[in-house]
Amino acid sequence: MPVLNINGKPVTVEVEGEMPLLWVLRDVLNLTGTKYSCGIAVCGACTVLIDGEPVRSCSLPVADIAEGAAILTIEGLSATRDADGMPTHPVQRAWAELDVPQCGYCQSGQIMAAVALLQETANPTDEEIDAAMTNLCRCGTYQDIRAAIHRAAELARG
Q1: By Cβ atoms counted within 10 A, which residue in 7, 77, 108, 131 is the most buried?
Q2: Contact indicator for 98, 128 with CB cutoff of 8 Å
Q3: Closest by Cα among 115, 5, 129, 131 to 71
Q4: What is the 3-state secondary structure (H, E, C) of 65-113?
Q5: Nearest to 57 by CA among 70, 71, 76
Q6: Residue-wise pLDDT tens for the chain (158 aa)?
Q7: pTM for the model
Q8: What's the angle, vertex CA 113, arms to CA 127 and CA 95, rounded to 5?
């Protein structure tokens, strides 16, 4: 039985080692913010952070996750809410401020990828954003995503 560190809490799951992390999150732990889309680690809708690095969870068997690795999902990103009930994480605040999502399906993966980028590069250029943000968006919100990343960088600086 693997013990996973998910959103800062140890969680024991009774699953086969080859089960992809995505299905553990969604079907076993009911953390449905991480989405399934392509199933072959191409689109990025299933992106979570493992030890701060963006990982496509749809193709990562739980047996391949290092013991003690910190898994962060969209549900664990904002520990607190503001007076209006909105998440306090700068990336989530920027996404809401700029009304980034259209259909919204890919956005949790986009947000997690943006968080990883901003942890590495506090004030990324457009070129750095374009290089780092490899998640796909069928609605084509790429310019809004780029603007939200710049806004999140501003919010993080205070």
Answers
A1: 108
A2: no
A3: 5
A4: CCCCCEEECHHHCCCCECCCCCECCHHHHHHHHCCCCCCCCCHHHHHHH
A5: 71
A6: 788 999 999 999 999 999 999 999 999 999 999 999 999 999 999 999 999 999 999 999 999 999 899 999 999 999 889 998 889 999 999 999 999 999 999 999 999 999 999 999 999 999 999 999 999 999 999 999 999 999 999 999 98
A7: 0.96
A8: 90
Q: How many residues does the chain have?
A: 158
CB of 46 closer than 8 Å to CB of 110? no
The one-letter amino acid code at 77 reads L
CA distances from 20 to 45, 48, 59, 89 (A): 14, 12, 6, 27
Domain 90-157 superfamily per CATH: [2Fe-2S]-binding domain (1.10.150.120)
Tokens of 98: 């700029």
Instruction: Please state, in angstroms and as integers, the Cα–Cα distance from residue 66 to each residue in 33, 45, 60, 140, following that order.
Output: 23, 22, 11, 35
In the chain, what are the domain boundaries? 3-75, 90-157
In angstroms, the CA 135 to CA 79 distance is 25
Q: Is 3-75 CATH 3.10.20.30?
A: yes
